[in-house]
Design brief:
about 425 residues; alpha+beta; 14-stranded antiparallel β-barrel; two-stranded antiparallel ribbon; 8 helices; 19 strands; globular
């Protein structure tokens, strides 16, 4: 059991250092790890980065509202799973995420004054501590093995509205299951296992500045009636892991309740290919702040004459916690328990995406990120624009209008925190429109 608890402690310590966790000790710290592969290429930005990747709903359920405005179905999974803390060779730790999102555009079935979508999704985050050998109290029964893990299963609901500006609202119901020691009758100690419900809430507001200008002008803003400028401003907020404490064998610890607030802007050029909208080129810059809304304190308790013991208590914060949006998001300043993520993305023809970013944790965790994506749908549009391929055929039109296959990769690099250096995320995302 020593190896398992040592590994578990190491993981919790890492999450503490990297996620503003210094306010108070929390359980199931794997819930603080950013899971979006695209966002991880930009320093871990996820609250405001709009994407069709189903895994993004884990970070902000409002993503599902945006997803449903333009897409029907998305299936995303890590491939392969992420080896966690690769600098600690032989730790056996890994992180895996899988998600499925489905969207419904109500305008297909009714005449409405605005585009409205409904979405539902399922996702799972699985943190694997590995397989361990236990020595039972009755040595005649021999040693046994068990698997230690933390996981969260999420059911997501989202609503999207597109009327001049775009708004997404979403809710995650999550069921957290943590198993750190087995229930074996021969053991003198009981199991260390806990289950607890929690929830997330999120909102994303996007202002397509050029589209708003076109709406009030009554005609599109274009160059030579072929190319349009692009400027989108996006704000995102998420409240994560809201619930009661989690209990292990009578010991209660708080959940890692977290607030995230982020914004980004995207500038570029858009056009059409075969009467289909197409982003030719764009640049996105984003910044996000997070705060773990848990505070702890210790007080003396006189248990007996001449005897003094200490009891730790915790409390949850609310709203934005200690965030200062202007200082944190505009000027990039950090203070107290605030962690900052920032990054940029360049996209070419909706086909190639290149990203870089950085993460600054108040506990001393600093790392840089980079990433890239390839999207088949944009590649087909590029071939069509060059006259290499004609999507007018039935199968070609279907692929361009209704299907996309996306691959994304990101990596962490750090000269100060060797344990996280070299952490890689890879995902495949299949989208039906």
């Amino acid at each position: 059991m020593g190896r398992m608890f040592g590994t578990f402690s190491l993981t919790c310590f890492f999450c503490l250092v990297g996620s503003g966790y210094g306010q108070g000790e929390t359980a199931v710290s794997f819930l603080l790890i950013p899971t979006s592969v695209e966002g991880n290429g930009m320093g871990g930005v996820a609250a405001s980065l709009v994407t069709s990747d189903a895994i993004s709903t884990i970070s902000n359920p409002a993503q599902l509202g945006f997803f449903g405005l333009n897409n029907d179905l998305s299936l995303s999974t890590y491939t392969p799973k992420t080896g966690w803390l690769p600098g600690n060779s032989g730790s056996g730790l890994s992180l895996n995420a899988t998600a499925l999102s489905a969207g419904l555009q109500l305008n297909r079935y009714a005449k409405l004054p605005a585009a409205i979508s409904l979405g539902v999704g399922y996702s799972q985050v699985y943190f694997d501590f590995g397989t361990f050998t236990t020595s039972p109290a009755n040595t005649s029964t021999g040693a046994s093995q068990f698997h230690a893990y933390d996981k969260a299963d999420n059911i997501t609901f989202g609503v999207g509205i597109d009327y001049v500006v775009r708004l997404g609202v979403g809710y995650n119901f999550k069921w957290i299951n943590s198993k750190l020691r087995p229930s074996v009758p021969a053991q003198t100690a009981g199991p260390i296992e806990a289950k607890v419900p929690a929830h997330d809430f999120g909102m994303i507001l996007q202002i397509p500045v050029v589209d708003v200008a076109s709406h009030f002008r009554g005609e599109p803003v274009t160059f030579n009636n072929r190319v349009s400028p692009l400027l989108n401003l996006t704000l995102g907020y998420a409240s994560r892991n809201v619930g009661e404490e989690i209990s292990y064998a009578g010991q209660s610890d708080p959940l890692p309740r977290q607030a995230a607030l982020g914004w980004n802007f995207e500038v570029g050029l858009s056009s059409q290919v075969n009467d289909r909208p197409w982003k030719l080129l764009s640049f996105t810059w984003a910044r996000e702040a997070t705060d773990v809304l848990v505070s702890s304190s210790t007080k003396e308790v006189a248990s007996a004459p001449g005897d003094t013991s200490y009891v730790s208590t915790f409390s949850y914060g609310s709203g934005l916690g200690d965030m200062r949006p202007i200082d944190n998001l505009l000027f990039g300043k950090t203070h107290g328990t605030i962690d900052l993520m920032k990054g940029w993305q360049v996209q070419l023809a909706e086909c190639l995406y290149f990203r870089e970013g950085s993460y600054t944790g108040v506990g001393g965790l600093l790392y840089d990120t980079r990433g890239a994506s390839f999207k088949l749908n944009g590649f087909l549009k590029l071939l069509a624009s060059l006259g290499i391929w004609n999507p007018a055929y039935d199968w070609g039109a279907y692929f361009v209008d209704h299907f996309d296959l996306q691959y994304s990769r990101s990596i962490y690099t750090s000269t100060q925190n060797s344990l996280i250096n070299g952490t890689e995320f890879n995902s495949i995302n299949i989208v039906f429109k």
